[in-house]
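Bug #77: duplicate submission created two jobs. Keeping one. Sequence:
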Amino acid sequence: MPTPADGEVLLRHDWLGLAPAARLRMSEAGSYSAPTALGEVVYGQAIGTVLESRHPDFAPGDMVMSMRAGWQCFSTAAGDQLNRIDPALAPPPVWLGALGTSGLAAYIGLLDLGQPIAGETVVVSAAAGAVGSVVGQIARIKGCRVVGIAGGTDKCRVAVEEFGYDACVDHRSPTLADDLARACPQGIDVSFENAGGVSRDAAWASMAQGGRVVVCGLIAEYNDPQIAGPGWYTLLTRRLTVRGYITSDHIHRRDAFIADMSGWWRQGRIRMRQDVSVGLESAPAAFIGMLQGHNQGKVLVKL
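Kept job's structure:
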C-alpha cells in the first residue's frame, strides 16, 4: 500500500476509465507522451475516494478524479493533480465520461477548434463512442445538422435514437463515401475525426469550402501508423483547415466546460452510455474490445 507524502493523498480507486490514448503509450516509438516502460502501471484515469490526506484541500471520504491513477486499485497523488467531483450532480462514472476527459475532449475540439455555426453540417466518426457521442449532442445543442459514422447498424441506430444524430452511416459499408455524400448533400462544414482510416477518407471527399477538420483521435490507425491518408489537393482547392489537438494542452478550459456541461446534463440534453466490466482483471479484455470497436459509450471498469 503506498503512503502519501506531504501535499499528497491516498486514493482507493472506485472506477477506472479506459481510453485509446493508453495504446499510444504502448509503443517504443512514443507519441505526445513518453512510452510506458515495462513494469510501469498502465495509463488510465480513475474516480476514487480519499482514504488518507496530507493536503489541506482534501479530507478522507472526498471523491476525486485522478488523471494519472492508472490500472491499479490504490494510488497516491499530489493535490494539484486531482479534481473534486460532485456525486450529487451526476453519478461518479459520468465524471469519467460526459463530465470527464472524454466530454472535455469533445467540448474543446468541437467548440474551440471546429467552431460550428448553427445550420452547418457536422460529421463525427466513432459517433457512438465516449467522445463522439458527446460531440454529436453538443453540435445539436448548437443548432447544427449532425451526421455520424459508426461501425455497424446497431451503433448507427444508437447514434440516431439515443444521441440525436440526424443520420448515421456504417463505416463497414463498401459504399461508405457515397453513403456519407448522400447524407451530407451540402457538404461537410466540420469533420470531427476520432477514427481515421476509411472514415477520414470518406469525410475528406465531401468537405465543403472553408471546412474544418478536427483531429481528436485515430483509433483505426494506432496499430498501423503508416496508413496513407488523402492527398492535399482538396486541402488547397476547398480552403480547408486541419487541426490536431491534445486535450491536456487545453486544461485551462475545464471550468468553462464544467459550467456548460453540468447545465446541459441537469437539463437532460446530454446522455451517456456506459460499457462496464467488473474487477481490475477485466481491464485488458475490455481495453482490447474497445480498440476493436466492440464498445458503445465510455468503457469503464468497476473496482
